[in-house]
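Co-fold these.
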Amino acid sequence: MFQTSLKYPSIERFDEYFSTDLIVIDGRCHGVTAIEMRTGQVHLFRSKCVIIATGGAGRVFPFTTNGAIKTGDGMAMAYRAGVPLKDMEFVQYHPTGLPGTGILITEGSRGEGGILVNKDGYRYLQDYDLGPPDPWPRKKAMELGPRDRLSQAFWHEQKKGRTISTDYGDVVHLDLRQLGEAKINERLPMVRELSSSYIGVDPVYEPIPVRPVVHYTMGGIDTDVDAATSVEGLYAAGECACVSINGANRLGSNSLTELLVFGARAGRGAAKFAMCGVAETNDQQIQAAAQAAEDRILQLFRRTGGTESVSGLRRDMNDAMEAGAGIYRSEDTLQACTETLQQIRERYKDVLLTDKSNVFNTDLIGALELGSMIDVAAAMACSALQRKESRGSHQRLDHPERDDAAYLKHSLAHYSATGLPNIDYCGVMITRSQPAERVYGGAQE
Amino acid sequence: MSERVIELDILRYDPEQDEAPHFQTYTVPYRDDWVVLDAINYVKDELDCTLSYRWSCHMAVCGSCGMIVNGEPVLACHAFLRDYPQKIRIEPLQNFPVERDLVVVMDDFMDKLSSVKPYLVAREEKDVDDGEYLQTPAELAQFKQYTACINCLLCYSACPQYALTESFVGPAALALAHRYNLDSRDVGRSVREDVVASNSGIWECSFVGACSEVCPKTVDPAAAIQQTKIASTGDYFLKFLMPWKRQ
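Predicted complex below.
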């Protein structure tokens, strides 16, 4: 797609410009400010509309398949500008990540016939309403069950002491050996390569150690079906957005559909908006907003002293999220998590910026990313605290049942200067697919 | 947990502070399964937060952490410490200007990539509603290998010809041109020929093959360039034999 974009000379790219703030005045978006990483200069991009396409926020957690840049900056920008973040309590754990790196071992490895076993070689999924193992394979059963259920089953196995302990935490085994070398080479060459090089395990001869890993943010910037937000001229599409096609647990490959459909809708919507007579803007107000954004960055950049390191704060935030808002949550863990996040927010005011160069200053960018992550993490933890039920990827030990009467609705986290969002809810649009009990394994018949 | 330590000599350069690049040494405790990038991240997080470098995916897909480790261009996320001696030297990719520390300026490559039109030039543009441009698995197999390029620039860093002649279009861009030329849905070969078969194109390549040796995705740009030379030579003679035939 990147290469195809080169076909259109009208697309002007600004590579390695790091967006920091949306310019929003009276409920309308007038552009963004961004740091040009090569020079450190802050630029104002004035525009009639803006589309946010910044992806997810997996880096809020310590163990994730997401790349280093997936720090939720677009979400945080919209959130701070007054757009609510919707359904942020729904964070997907993929059941099969490589220990240590979090590299994803594709769902295809189970689709092709890989099995999950515990330390006794037992296909433990049958103990969690996903069995019986035979007949095999069959839809929505055992290893072909959904990601949330498989990750939750791991958690229970771990509690029972039936997982395998390693230097990188507990694991179970994903066994592909029965597929044979030829099929693995043909269908899963990337799995073989990744597993062999990164953990020294050749799946042709040995089972792959895996553990659940944060993979996808179902929630995001609240948009309608045209990818428009509540701020006029501001659109969002992809993982950073929440148009609500993924509910509480995304199914494999739906993110691509989401990109194609809502990326196109965002583009068309934004183009239409830009072309049909946008009202006059007050230039002074726009300049002042951009100046305020620049001042905030310069203040961070120029500050001296400080006792908190970016990496130390990030680690503490990561640990708080895993401990409090992981696969299973409860009132206590979420309360503790939000309190820790508030402390981290305070400590962030004392962050130490050592790098004073204007050129490719990743110390500064890292600090800004951390600021975004603290905001996004608080939206996740507070939304999870308020949802006193279990649904999809959001599992509460203290409220194990789904409660449609009270919670068949979307959460909306609104930014507040305290750092703790105000949470309210909006209705779910239900059309053809009616809510029903989720049934897997033999119980389907 | 391993108690072993590794010494990294990392090239540092801040154009605002330094007259010339210099090396700085860091001692890093490491684990056997670490890659070079893990050690560099340790430096960034624990020892020196002023170090600048690019990285994101940590699984040899995004192509952003290319650098020179002990003289060889590699992806830092796919270079395993177990394969190196106890002391390693880390430098930015060669043949590109250094922007800061391990970060190079990629503008020249981006221009060259654009110049070969690395996208489908279809016989006639179809509307989305008119459906896909279809292709058989056999037709896909013709060029699939060349689609694996992640634009990591290791091949430019390794290429002796690019080092000598900056105008050389270079391995990755020429391999991508070849990828589209081989694509059954594409008719853009004659328009790419202006760049590909120019003095700065395929004929600059002296077939050293260093590009293919360092390619982390086994794209084999050297083979792509030699195949293009053959096809282009054919075109040249056909012009005399069948002057009426436009490629």
